[in-house]
Amino acid sequence: MRREIDILRLVQRADIYLYKKICMGKTSPCRLAGFLPARRVIVVILRLWALLQVWFALLVGGVRVLRFLLAAPAHRVRAGRRMLREHAARGATSETVLSLASEGLHCIDPPFLNHPEGDTHGSGIVIYFTGTGETPRAPLPAYRRLIEACGGLCGLRHFVVEAPWSRGAYYGSSAFSSRIWEQVLPLVTRERGPFILIGLSRGAVAALDTGARIAEEHGKVAAVLAISPPLKVPARLPASIVEVAKLEPVVERLGRWLPVAPRLVQRTVETLVRRVHLLLTAVIHAELGMLADEDFGYAVRDVELRGATESSARAVREFRMLVEAKERELELLVSRVAATAARTPRFFASLVWGEKDTWAPAAACRERLALALLRENTPTDSVMLTMLPARGHGLFREHAEDITPLSTLLRATQQQAQARARAQQARTDADRSFQQKLLELPTGAPE
Fold first, then answer.
1. Are the CB atoms for 277 and 315 separated by under 8 Å?
2. Which of 125, 135, 201 is nearest to 163 (CA)?
């Protein structure tokens, strides 16, 4: 299906910039060579071919989505459809809760956390890393609930790190972690810390990797609360992950050809993709017990701001990364976390799973990290492992469940960050005092 007609081959052999101009009807194709047809003819041919590509992608994608919905439990699909209807009746969320700090990094407005701007207690930076398929605003209501239950964190500055938009960031776990680090680096370089990092699912893995780099490469204190980190590939991935990942070729085809299609087709396809994207989001939320009207409203807001096609492309890439996760990469990450905690007191990590987690094998993840801690002889007070009974993958985003176990762990993480920051400051002051005493010693050599 990737084979193209001869006229498209001729155009692709030419300058790619000129090709894009031709697709949008902004320049004459006769600049390529004298054998090409007139401007209007080539534009019509390209747009007709784009139209065929778009409708073919919709056909294939529709079949895959329908197969996924038919295989999913009926109560989840009904819950997803109910959420869509309720959102349509309620209307979109227009509240401004995030402000862009830099590319991929958003600052949470203090009033959203029920704290007046400028009134701070203590020092520290709190950074939340979004999980697989999460948009930057979707977890904020649950995040606010967690912060309020913890107490003492509302007065700090809070940031959200979202998943990268570029396709190149999803070529592998190393490319993804490098891109996340680039998004966080300006803040890490500018601020003293301590840094309190929170992440869910894939975001928990990113938080662990970022915290280790902050402690080792920048010499600053980083304390991590990793919620449901998938540190081991499950023997059998959930069907929802696999089926959503299979939609990547369809969405990529749409992203490639939709800008060339007629505008009426663009608007129609964007509406269809938006509805399917939100329906699948609601069904997955129902699977993870994360059904909440406010969360879903913020997720819809993110899709409206960026566009359904682009938002869907990023989401399916994230799910595809879960499918392609390799045991060796996860094993290296676990070893690095254990080694960093053993080498420096500037790093602390608290990892928590739910016993009924269907997305990450909680017992196997905990066992892998426990073995790494023994191998590296890591101090017992540097890494904490917790297993919550009768809880799933979403944990703090499960609005129907008690938030107290998570808030207790977050409070302990904050205390560890503050204690380690005070200890590091004491060491710095002692070193500075020692250097000052050396400078005050007489410098004259004896005769």
1. yes
2. 135
